[in-house]
Every structure is written in C-alpha cells, then in structure tokens.
Write a structure and sequence with these properties.
The chain is mostly beta strands. It folds into four domains: 9-127, Elongation Factor Tu (Ef-tu), domain 3 (Beta Barrel), CATH 2.40.30; 140-224 and 385-407, no CATH class; 234-367 and 433-454, no CATH class; 458-470 and 533-621, no CATH class. The chain is 11% helix and 35% strand. Helix 3 packs parallel to helix 6. The N and C termini lie far apart (120 Å).
Length: 622
C-alpha cells in the first residue's frame, strides 16, 4: 500500500489507487427514518478517476483492478483527501447495509500502445455519522410504528399496530456467504404486549430479501367481559329457557358451548370448562343445589308446600361432538334439562342467566391453584394461551440460516429453506379425554350440579282429569212391531232417527210418574226407570317422577261423598308404571284410569288442581 502524502490514501479490496487519482465527487446524504424524525445513517458516495500505467501494457493491471473494484463488502480506506478517517469493514466501523457497494467502473485507453488507461470508479456505503454511532451487525438502525383504532357501534375497540424495523447488517468478510444476523431475530422484542382485556386477533410478519428489514401488522380486539377458560382460544356458549304452549310452569333449559382449543391443549380442557359452566349456572345460579326454591318447604302443619315453589333441575339430554375432524381441535357440547313448577320470575331471578362465566383456577371444576389464586379470569386465560398466540404462533416458525448466492462461488450452495423453531407440522396424535382425573371431574361436576331430588321435589310432570259418569237409572224401552213399518213421506231415515224436536213420549204421560210407563205403539220408544240414580267418577292421569316410583292414586271423597274403587279391568281401567329413563337416577312414568262410585249425591265437581302449575300438589290426591 503506497503512501501519498500530497493526495492522501485510497484503497479498496487490496487495490491501491496511485498518485494520479482525482476525486470527482464525494458526498453524504442523510437517511431519515420512515417517520422523518431522525437520521438513521448517512449514505456516502465517492467518485474518483485514476490513471493506470505500465511500460509493458495495462491489460493485466486493468483486469486485476476490475476484479477487485467490483466486489461488494470489501474493506475501504479513504484518508487525507479532505475527509479523513474513512475506514470501512477493516475494524469496528462496518457498513450498515451489505456494503460498500461499487457502482460504476469505466475505462478509457490512453496514448501509446496500451501503456496507459484512465479508470473511473464510484462506490457508496452507509454508516452513522454521530459521535457514538454503532455499526455492530444486528443493531437496530430504525424502528417506527403507527396505530389505528376502530370503534364499533357497541363501543368495542379494535387496535391496528403496524411496525417497521431495520438493522445494521454486513458480511464479516468478502468470502463469507452465510447470513447469521436477520431482522426476524428481533420479532419477540418489538412485539407490543396485548392490552389488558384484549385478544390478539391476527399477526402478519414479513422479512425482506436482504434480511435487514422486518415489518409487522398486529390486530388486537377488545374482548367482552367473559374471558374464555384456560387453554381455550375461542369459546362460544349460550343458555336459554323455553316452555311448551300453555305450560308456562314447565321449562326446558338448554346450555350449549363450543370450544376451540389451543394447539398445546388437550380436549380435557374443554370437558372441564363445560362442566364448570354447568356447575356454576345450575348449581350456584339456581340457589346452590340445582333448585329454584327453599329445600323441602313445608307449611305450619308439617305438610309439603305445593311443588310449584320447588323447581328441581332434572338432567334430560346430553350431546357432545367433534365439529371439525380435519380442522382445528375443538369440542362442542349441548345439555338439556327440565324444570317444573317454576314461574317466569323465578327463571329470570334464579335460572343462572347472565351470570359471569366461572373462574376456573385449576384443580378441577371450581378448584383453586395456589399459584393462580389471585389472578383474574382474563389473566389466567392470557397466560394459558401465551405460547400459541405469541409472535411466532403455535408452530414457532422463524427465518433460518441464509446464504448469499452468486456466480462467484466455487461451489454453489443449495438455496436455503426457512426452518422452524418447533415442529410446524407432524402426525396427528390421539387426543382422547379420559383417565381417573377426568372421570372424577365429570362425576363431581354432575353430582354438584344435580343432586338427587327429595320426594316432594321429584315430580317432573303430573296431569289428572276427572270424568263424571252419572247413571240416572233410566233405560230406553222399544216395542217391536208386528209387521214392517211403512216409511213416512218426505222424511229421510236420518232425519227420522235424530229429529230432537219430535216428542220422545206421548203427550201427557211424563216418564217419571211411573217406574214402568205403558209401552208405546209398535216401533216407538219409551223410558223405564230401573234403579235410583248413581254417580261414577273416573280419575284419568299420568305422571313423570325422578328418583321415586309414582304411587297408585286413590280418590277418597268428592264433595263429602265417599268414593269406592270399581275399576273394570276388562275394559282397560287400572294403573300402569314403568322406568322410562335415567338422569343420574331412574325416571318413572305412570298412567292410570281409575273408576269410582260415590255413595251419595254430591254437588258441583270442579276439575282437580295440578300442583305443578298451582294449587295443591300431587301428594294431596294420594
């Protein structure tokens, strides 16, 4: 390397410019960040001209100069030429963007037979000009972001966060092709935290070809008050009550839920979450023991009060499904139950509707884990999904090793492929919920939410009808004709038989004057009173009871008259009962058609009351 005291030193990649070198242009352009707030670095441009000479010809020297002066990222010295101290890629000061980068090389032969040549060359490089500038590869050179907010008609806010990061990056030397520093390595450090009460709805990341720039777009959505259970990414649930027409005291309740699980969660998380929801809504929400009234309420005489005040919750049906076999891991549940003897006010007040979602701290349904005892539901959920909702998602994909590929490598490397920090895709694994822990959770959850009802609260359906059968003792008597009766003109058979306006008996002879009035003419009808009037009452009904058989009903008195059972078994009258289901306890259904005779006349007989919708309960009729 020559020392030119009068014109300074210019050296690049082993090529030393001679004493006839002239600086044609030297300038530095500050590079502002995307926000226009600060200078990230200065882009320098150098344009020089020199003369190559050799008495033997300049061909070989020119070729050697072109080889050296066209290679990027080599060392550069420019000193003593009005701007001293430029030493790039030869010590601690590095170019910040894969440079220095040669721009132009031009040659013009000189006089004589190739003894001289004029060479023009330009180069640019990027470096900070501040006194404490850092050029270490991987150091952040620019970081900016912008924010956007969308507020919907309900006041919920969606935040958009767009960022851009640039790092200083250079090759350790001209022969090194491996890229070990990338802007993607900063992804975790530039990802903003999720605002409390928000969920990370989406993330989009991009790394440029030079690997020195990372851009990201992050969307955070404000969550409703109820946070999903731990280990669940998305949760949907509903709770409703309905009645059949005309039966506003008999309710059918339904709780449905669907859970999309985090990639590192198991189906047991969904099962526990659903039974925790059941226990909270129907246990705590319905007065503590899946009921809507005080336990076994009785009147002053110690008799059970009408079961209208009880409102026992009876499990009725359950369904579970895997909604997407080839999709994301999810589970769906539907639970239906019955509530009898409850009015609308009780449903609204104690039916479990609009309760906050249960706070499951771990340790099973309603359990407490010491480490999470003071955390909110949102904090528990956010902590359980942090791994899969982080800046690299559940698979952990990242920018892997990179290599610079060009035509100057002696051996061309294979183009590198992105790699993952964790397994991005593998074989599906069995994820069947089971084991003693889950069994205990389900059993404990059902037992907590649906204890066996008491006898007074075991009635799920009760219907009773009374049919009055008065027997006046009158019997029709019809004399047989001795010869065929002639048809009457202009009257059809139907009109003759069913003409209710025609007198049933000859005028002046009431049927009640004589037990056996005289017979009419042949073919006529008379009424004979065979015995005193008798009153029959039939008790027809059906009932559904949970956990207890239905007792055989018995009618004792009606309006002061004693009722005696005279059922006709040959005509299908009697009592029948069977087990029709099992909702943790057997479900009994019974039907009856019982016939009674009263020993004395009675007055008005009203329809029997029904304890499920008001009045006395079924036990009052037993």
């Amino acid at each position: 390397m020559s020392n030119l005291p009068t014109v300074g030193t210019l050296w690049y990649n082993g090529f030393e410019f001679g004493p006839y070198t002239e600086t044609l242009d030297f300038r530095g352009t500050p590079q502002y960040d995307s926000a226009g707030r600060t200078v990230t670095a200065t882009r320098f441009f150098l344009h020089v001209r020199t003369v190559l000479e050799n008495t033997g010809g300049t061909d070989a020297a020119t070729r050697a100069a072109v080889v050296k002066l066209t290679q990027p990222a080599a060392g550069l010295i420019y000193d003593g030429r009005g701007f001293s101290g430029v030493r790039i890629n030869l010590g601690s000061t590095r170019d910040c963007s894969w440079g220095p980068k040669p721009q132009v090389v031009s040659l013009r032969p000189g006089g004589g037979p190739g003894l001289t040549s004029t060479l023009e060359w330009s180069v640019e490089w990027l470096q900070p000009t501040c006194a404490d500038g850092q050029t270490n590869p991987g150091s952040p050179m620019e970081f900016v972001y912008k924010l956007g907010f969308d507020v919907d008609r309900s006041g919920y806010t969606t935040r958009r966060y767009d960022l851009r990061l640039r790092i200083a990056i250079s090759r350790p030397d001209i022969k090194t092709r491996a890229v070990t520093q990338t802007a993607d390595q900063w992804r975790e450090r530039v990802t903003p935290p999720v605002p409390p009460g928000y969920r990370r709805a989406s993330q989009s990341w991009s790394v440029n070809e030079a690997k020195d720039e990372l851009t990201g777009s992050i969307v955070d959505e404000q969550m409703p008050p109820n946070a999903p259970p731990p280990g669940v990414v998305l949760a949907e649930a509903s709770h409703d009550y309905s009645t059949d027409g005309g039966k506003i005291y008999n309710w059918t309740g339904t709780i449905t839920a669907r859970y999309e699980l985090a990639q590192d969660a198991t189906v047991e998380k969904a099962v526990k979450a659903f039974f925790s929801l059941l226990n909270d809504r129907l246990g705590k929400g319905a007065g503590g023991k899946a009921q809507f009234g005080p336990a076994d309420a009785r009147d002053a005489k110690g008799m059970p009060t009408p079961i209208k005040s009880a409102g026992v919750v009876i499990p009725w049906s359950f369904s579970v499904s895997e909604p997407e076999i080839y999709g994301r891991l999810s589970a769906a549940f539907r639970f239906t139950y019955r509530v009898a003897g409850v009015d609308l006010a009780q449903i609204l007040a104690k039916g479990g509707l609009w309760r906050p979602a249960p706070l499951d701290r771990g340790g099973g349904v309603g359990g407490l884990a010491n480490a999470a005892a003071k955390k909110t539901a949102y904090e528990l959920w956010a902590g359980s999904t942090a791994n899969v909702l982080g800046p690299r998602g559940g698979s952990g994909l990242a920018v892997g090793p990179d290599f610079i590929v060009d035509l100057c490598a002696a051996v061309q490397p294979a183009p590198p492929l992105p790699t993952a920090l964790k397994l991005a895709f593998g074989a599906a694994v069995e994820n069947v919920p089971g084991g003693p822990l889950l069994t205990n959770v389900i059993t404990a959850g059902l037992a907590a939410a649906f204890p066996a009802p008491s006898a007074e609260r075991s009635w799920l359906d009760y219907r009773v009808t009374t049919v009055i059968e008065p027997d006046s003792g009158n019997k029709p008597a019809k004399a047989l004709p001795t010869e065929p009766l002639p048809p009457k003109a202009n009257r059809s058979v139907e009109s003759q038989l069913w003409d209710l306006t025609a007198p049933a008996l000859p005028a002046g002879e009431p049927s009640g004057d004589k037990p056996f009035p005289p017979l009419p003419d042949a073919g006529g009808v008379s009424v004979q009173r065979r015995h005193s009037p008798t009153l029959y009452v039939r008790l027809i009904g059906q009932a559904v009871r949970v956990g207890y058989p239905v007792q055989v009903p018995d009618l004792v008195k009606v309006g002061g008259a004693t009722a005696s059972l005279v059922s006709r078994v040959d005509q299908g009258e009697g009592f029948a009962q069977s087990v029709v289901g099992n909702t943790l306890v057997p479900v009994y259904a019974a039907s009856w058609n019982m016939r009674y005779v009263l020993d004395a006349p009675t007055g008005r007989i009203d329809p029997p009351p029904n304890g499920l919708i008001g009045g006395v309960g079924p036990t009052s009729l037993l």
